[in-house]
Amino acid sequence: MQQPFQESVATVLDEALRELDQALDSERLDAVIYAYNGKRGRFRELQREIGTLSPEERPRAGQVLDEAIQRFVTSSSTLAAELNSAARTTNYDATFDPTVPGEPSMAGGLHPTIQMMYDLNDAFADLNFDICAGPEISSELYEFDYMNFPPDHPSRESMDTYWLRGQRSARAIDRLCIRPHLTGASVRYMQTHEPPFRFAYPGRVYRNETTDARHERAFFQYEALIVDRDITFSAGNLLTSTVLDTVFGRKVPTRMRTGFFPFVEPGFEIDMQCQVCLGKGCSTCGRVGWLEIMPGGVPHPNVLRSAGLDPEEWSGFYVNVGLDRLVMMRYGINDVRLFHGGDLRFLTQFK
Amino acid sequence: MLISREWLTDFVSLDPDLTTAELAHELTLHTVEVEGFDEVRLKDESAVVAVVLKAIETGTGRFDVTVDLGNGHATLSTRQVLEVGEHVAASGAFEIPTFGESAHLGLEAVFAAHQIVSLDAYGVPVSAPGTPLEVALGWRDSILEIDNKSLTNRPDLWGHLGIARELAAIFKCELRGIESENAVRRAAKSTELIGEIDRDLCSRMSVFEIEHPGPPPATPWHIRSRLARIGQRSINLYADLTNYVMFATGQPSHAYDATTLQLPLGVSRGVARDLPVLGGQTVTAGWDSVGVIADQSGPVSVAGVVGGAPTSVSGQSTRVVIEMGAFNPRAVRTASLALGIRTDASSRFEKGLDTQSIDRAQSLFSSELHALGGLEQLISRWQDCDLVPTAKTSVDTSLEFLNSRMGTNLAADQMAALLRPLGFEVDRPNSDVITVRVPTWRATGDVSIPNDILEEVARIIGYDNLPPATPLVALRRPAVDPILAAERRAREFLAFRMGGQEVVTYPWISDRDLELAGVPDAAVLRIETAEADRSALRPSLIPGLLRVVDKNASFKPEFSVFELGTTFAPSDDAAMDDRELLPTLSHRVSAAYIGGDAESAFRRAVGALEGLGRAIYATALEIGEAIGVPPWVDSIACRSVSISNGNTIGHVGLISPLGVSYLSRRLTVACFEVQLDDLHFQPSRTNTYSPISVFPSIQLDVSLVVPAELRWSAIARTVQEAQIEHVANLVFVGEYRSDEIGPDRKSVTFTAVLASNARTLDANDRAAGRSAIVRCLRDQLHAEERV
Questions:
Q1: Which pLDDT does position A315 carry in this prediction?
Q2: What pTM was estimated for this model as a whole?
Q3: Alpha-carbon distances, residue A318 vs A197, A231, A263 (angstroms)
Q4: How far is A125 from chain B (nearest CA, A)?
Q5: Which residues of chain A make contact with B488, given a CB cutoff of 8 A?
Q6: CB–CB of B48/B58 below 8 Å?
Q7: B195 sits in which H/E element
Q8: Which helix (H) or strand (E) holds B397?
Q9: Are B781 and B748 in contact (CB under 8 A)?
Q10: For the complex shown, is ipTM > 0.90?
Q11: CB–CB contact A298 B451 (8 Å)
């Protein structure tokens, strides 16, 4: 047997064992095994070399190579068992710093009111409600006449409603405004669909008033209406709890009390337990433990008639909530003007 | 409105153990919102009534006064002259008692100036020495603050009597109404007190005269105290009596000094301008004709709103005329608005009082005169013109209707038992259909239909006490509005994929903003507002978005914002008589990309727009050559967005010099605005699948020097049309300009993707591909490979 063959085997074995020592993870170990004992590995090359030796040398050479391969296999198996052992918990040393901050997300965000609107849309869609929207410009007919507002109701005045210019003497369908509330859209929907109805119609509304931390000219409302035969007042609880549970993520105690709005009879004010003091009474709730959160009620017979429905047969329940106000309560925001201010330092807080 | 719990006891006996908090809670749930309540107490609770035993002048203008405190005697020094036996206020420690902040008794200053104060001089009823001062003064009370908004439809609740009636119904206790005895009607009937009455302005007027032999007495202490507790200042006997009666019954009235009047009084339309009125004002507005009360010389009051000052009663008036009216709510409201004067009286008349309210008010008035030592006997004459008496109405409703809406199973007599304490009378209480007769104080528009009866029954039961029932509904698939769905997808794409922050801006813009939108004035919708810079309804979202950009650029070097909202334009349709013609309202999406160089900002905007179409499931959204460029976008760095019919629905590009002039600093801003209304949407996702090739593709970077004006679209199209073997796609990497390249040339780098479905491509294919691409572009576009 040629001496060089044995030396070659020893050299390859040394290299293989050294590389095994440096293999700190399974991936590296697999690469070493492949490089030495794979189909085209170094040991396979040596096996092919045996064919070039004299017949006398071949048995000894084969034996030397087998021993080397065996040693490599034993070592690599031992190392594999070690690497797969549960006792081994890291591939890194103490120089790895796990306290560095994560890569910043590239994601932007939705406006906080829109976020809340979509959360409520999802909640009402789960209840099999249609989600729709009415026009932002509407007529006196839909916003006031159909809504059972008396002809001299204060909200018809320019000081409350933004009427379009040049319509001072116009009335009903010819007198247009940017909508002061969402409710007019309910009649539009009912006129063009077949009862029973379950629909929500969020959107932005406009009132002609002075802006301050608590008042805005433009703000979002969320309104939902259910109309069916033999709907009882308790249907209101379902709508109310859908809104509040979605916004606050937990059951919020409510109470329903009498309230007056022209388009409902009976009308309700729905109060929620003050979430600052949990009903104990504090400055936020004027010491009464409750906060007025949304009006609602049974559609007035005149509203149902405007929608083409017989009030003897159909009844229902409205709820309407000021969406910006709800967001303010949810997050403790103290100035409603922030919503339309376009200040990214405010808006980007709501991811 | 403020309500005194002590005053309520005139009409209803509430359980003394009922706390004011409980009372407020129940009243809120069943009737009106109680916004809060205050306990009225003297700050110095140790103050007591004392009686003067001895007063000795010390010679320095002061007196040593010995008083009986009930549990002992004390002596103190005062400058006041006090008689033996006089009742005074003092405290055990001789500290000066002070009143609560809401007190308007006028005594605080007196207490502050003197250590001992005569109670007799103020007409405080006599109490034994040692009686707590707050008891003697009637200064132990709870004041409820009622939210006026919750009273707008309830004219009957604007006085203590109405609130007491509600409490009687809620707590199931007896209501003590006002005695029907009315001394006014015992006086001589006159025909000289009331003249012409316009029945459109006034349904009833009742006037009586009181003649005193000398100045009238002071206002009784209990009236002063009660008025003070609800925040009312004492003026003189008759002014106080009219206020007292109003806050008790809800019926306003007015007291005149008869010597200043030229009777009779009439009600007509007239001009009230320049009339000095109570409260020290003069009517300065309103040339319009409003309802006035006039004597023979002209207007003396604005009917139902405010009395004139020159004819009003004073503490020295010996002949007093009391006028009570039932004025038209609409006329009162119109006058109040026209003159800019809103009073306690106008607030009540606007709600629509029944004409019978005058009877209740007169009864109480005469009863209080009687309590003053028989002053009712001084009523010399009266006249009443009841032109349109409020009629009792009735409402028929079925038990089935009431029970089905409430989810209850109440019998008719149970319903009747709930309604009667409120003044309703129920006929046929054992029938399926009941007839509810409505009291006049609820018959002026408040209760007229079965739903109103439903409300009365349900609220007295308590809405939260009605049985819960989940509605049973037929399940069906909810309709999805494609525009709303697209808007949501657009928002989520621009925020969560493209890193934009959504903003919401106002729908109104200034005239300067209109210039940026490029819309002529004739095509702008405007609202009625005194604020000229907010009168135009936006035809574009871009001006508002640029304002947001400008606001934030000072603290953020690179960001993007977007908005989805409505834009407004006059209708294209012709008006028709029988249908509502709404303006054109468009749904738009707009975004702005700020920071970096012009090319990167532009590419971010275009990239977002390219992805938007797919994100919102839109079909055939094309970005192409700029057409009809609006003023906000640069005329060169611009592309148009169109749909399959060729209509342009938006633009994308760097903002124009005009747009830049809107900003307070020089910024690189790229924007797009697209109208969503004309888009068609895929009914579902449009992902497609291609089998994954078993042969890997090759990516080949190519840099070419090309003429400076050459557009990337020409390079991509030229290679595509050449159909070079294995070239599957070109991906733009970037452009580069330098002096070295020259002013008329630029370097363009792109990646060519080479692929084959038949075999693995090798180095020869790579070389062949590069060579073919370079040759193609050199021959057709004069490109040179950059070495």
A1: 93
A2: 0.81
A3: 11, 11, 10
A4: 7
A5: 118
A6: no
A7: strand B194-197
A8: strand B393-398
A9: no
A10: no
A11: yes
